[in-house]
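Q: Study each token:
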Amino acid sequence: MKKFGKVGAVLVTLGALSAVALAGGPVDQQLVIDGEIEMITRTEAPDGHPLDEVISGWHYRTGETRALEADTFENPGMLFVEQGEAAWNKIEGTEGKSCASCHGDASESMAGIGAQYPKWDADSGKPINVELQINKCRTENMGAEPLPFDKGGQKELTAYIKHQSLGTPVSIDLDAGDMQSWWKKGEEVYYTRTGQLNLSCASCHEQNNGNYIRADHLSQGNINGFPTYRLKQGALVSVHNRFRGCIRDTRAEFPAAFSDELMALEVYVTWRGSGLSVETPGVRQ
């Protein structure tokens, strides 16, 4: 039996990736939520994008999975959105306030807001995403403790807020503050190979999107459906959880959630999906 060296046993190059990939491709179908909300799931890429067209991950899933997202009653992620609504109305902190105390009806005050994040935060001098904005509001306005990563209702509240933008095209402002330099840093993270498997985000989601590797149909890796419900995990999954999971799968050490590295990556990957409708909560395998 042939034996492999310690490195040879784990190192997978792009050539090897291509060798085991089977041709697939996004399906030609339109996503309409509840037969009413027509979603933009394929659109022309923004200027400077390495691809000509950006495509939602919905197109790469099985027919059964696509059908789940098209029906909010059947979408398992909506259970978490309902929990997020409860969190929106929950009074916490020394100021005796809830999110609703300041923002009122989320269907009105948050409409289209989630499609604009991450955005520049002048106070911290960094980009801020919905999760960090929630914590900023909690500490500064509610006198409440910040929510720890993926705990205390953070995913659910984020999903509830972003769900109010369902159907709204993703559009972030790269001209605000120093967003351009964070975009550039995120691009560097996206193309940097890491781990024992020597893979980058681009290895799968740009160079092999549309192919099957094992049982996974590789999409472009757009994040317009996050937080998203993953059937594999039977749970709602946040975007930084997915980033860390992908990095872990390259057998590399993954950064902390909301670290500068992952915030830069979120800026860049969000931009890559510009023009796609917010699908939160998306349904993926």
Observations:
- The two ends are 36 Å apart (CA to CA).
- Residues 58 and 66 are 6 Å apart (CA to CA).
- The chain has eleven helices and twelve strands.
- The mean pLDDT is 92.
